[in-house]
Write a structure and sequence with these properties.
It contains five helices and no strands. The chain has 98 residues and is mainly α. It has one domain.
Length: 98
């Protein structure tokens, strides 16, 4: 069923809300890392393409929106494993000074 006002299925609405909330929480938790990345992207010409990653990713998702809308998002614990693996790698990098 699609919500006529927004054109978004309720299942996708909750999934997109969860993804956006997770992104904002991770951004808040790792603000110093995000600031460091933005500083490097802005000040070193070699890495200025970093600013293009998010807009290009969003554009690609927008291009495939009809194809993606055919899928029904399902929660999976694999996501949590990936998040914790990423946190472990980030923590190891911080401990080693990378």
């Amino acid at each position: 069923m699609i919500d006529q006002a927004s054109g978004i299925a309720p299942r996708w609405r909750s999934t997109l809300t969860a993804c956006l909330t997770t992104f904002l929480i991770l951004l808040a938790l790792f603000w110093s890392t995000a600031q460091g990345m933005a500083y490097i992207w802005y000040n070193f010409e070699t890495y200025t393409h970093g600013f293009l990653i998010l807009p290009i990713s969003l554009w690609l998702l927008w291009q495939k929106r009809r194809h993606l809308a055919a899928f029904s998002p399902q929660p999976t614990p694999v996501f949590l494993v990936l998040v914790f693996a990423g946190l472990a790698v980030w923590s190891l990098a911080r401990l080693t000074g990378v």
